[in-house]
Design a protein that fits this description.
Radius of gyration: 26 Å
Number of domains: 2
Structural class: mainly beta
Largest sheet: 8 strands, antiparallel
Oligomer: single chain
Shape: globular
Distance between the termini: 104 Å
CATH architecture of the largest domain: Distorted Sandwich
Length: about 350
């Protein structure tokens, strides 16, 4: 028979075990409920897409991304996955569900365009997300996808989706100045940076518990695209896809311009252009320090085509390098044929 003392001892052991086990179980449930996110876009970062903006973690009027850099803007509440131009957009780049869930709401039917002035910005007031949707992942977690291509939304409210389900295509609807998908994560209606995870502390010097399945590298500066044109390109022309197919031109072209479109340059960065003619003579060899930071930067160098100094027929080479202190951030070469 079990004595009274043994019974009391047995009950005491059970109580101690419950006290020890319960906190561990609660922590495990919370971790399990937190979504593990895949990228919301079907592309390869650093190859045919890039992250233009991160979540702004500064609680005031300044800006701060999770890497303690400035590749964001004030109160930006998501991560912008960009593509090179509208020509690529029209070819179709899929937006994907980042995790399993149920479509909470969706909107389609808004035109794609590049917002360029205050009047256009005012026209999309209160519908800045454009064509987009929200997915509920349960336990207070939601993801939002904005600026999708008009007519591309492939799901509707109430649909169940799995991680990787195609939701639509990257577009430029709503308040968009370039083609991209704006991706926002919320927990109980509060924005969460997927590179950081839930944090009660503002700023970038915090413990990180990224929500990503495979966290992308922090790349605050990089190439969007580069090429040649017969005239200096405006940034809006590059976003529209102008000069995309320019691989050659007749010898009657008015000038040969070698250009780059870059994101995330900082004041003090040094860029260098080299232009080499078909006879391997260096026609341009120029560098400069950048005098201001810019989230989206277009730069170029070139030569006019004149009777006194005509552009030689054959293969021209352009070399571009962007350095920050002693680090080479971009180093590329492009070729162009004058026929």
């Amino acid at each position: 028979m079990i004595s009274s003392m043994q019974k009391h001892l047995f009950h005491a052991v059970i109580i101690v075990l419950l006290i020890v086990i319960r906190p561990s179980f609660a922590g495990s449930t919370e971790t399990t409920a937190q979504p593990v996110l895949a990228l919301p876009i079907k592309c390869t970062l650093g190859s045919n897409c890039y992250i233009m903006h991160y979540v702004d973690l500064d609680p005031g009027d300044k800006v701060l991304d999770f890497g303690c850099g400035s590749q964001t803007y004030n109160e930006h509440n998501g991560t912008d996955f960009g593509i090179s131009d509208l020509a690529t957009m029209k070819q179709g780049v899929a937006v994907l569900a980042a995790a399993d869930g149920i479509v909470h709401r969706a909107r389609d039917g808004m035109a794609d365009r590049l917002i360029a002035d205050q009047a256009q910005k005012k026209a999309v007031s209160n519908i800045e997300c454009g064509n987009g949707l929200v997915i509920d992942h349960g336990h207070g977690w939601q993801t939002q996808y904005c600026h999708l291509l008009n007519g591309s939304i492939a799901v509707k409210k109430g649909n169940t989706v799995r991680k990787g389900t195609p939701l639509g295509m990257v577009g430029s609807s709503g308040l968009a100045s370039f083609p991209h998908v704006h991706f926002t994560v919320r927990y109980q209606d509060k924005v969460v940076d997927p590179f950081v995870g839930r944090s009660s502390v503002a700023g970038c010097q915090v413990s990180r518990h990224a929500l990503w399945e495979n966290a992308p590298d922090y790349v605050p500066t990089g190439l969007i695209r580069a090429g040649f044109s017969p005239k200096p390109p405006a940034q809006i022309e590059l976003w529209q896809g102008e000069f995309r197919a320019a691989k050659s031109h007749s010898s009657e072209m008015p000038a040969l311009i070698f250009w780059v479109h870059v994101f995330g340059v900082l004041q003090g960065d040094r860029e260098h252009f080299t232009l080499i003619n078909p006879d391997q003579r260096v026609m341009i060899d120029q560098g400069k320090y950048l005098t201001k930071s810019n989230r989206s930067w277009v730069s170029y160098a070139g030569r006019r085509n004149t009777q006194d100094h005509p552009l030689a027929k054959g293969i021209w080479r352009g070399v571009y390098q962007l350095k920050r202190d002693d680090r080479i951030l971009i180093n590329l070469e492009r070729v162009f044929i004058i026929e």
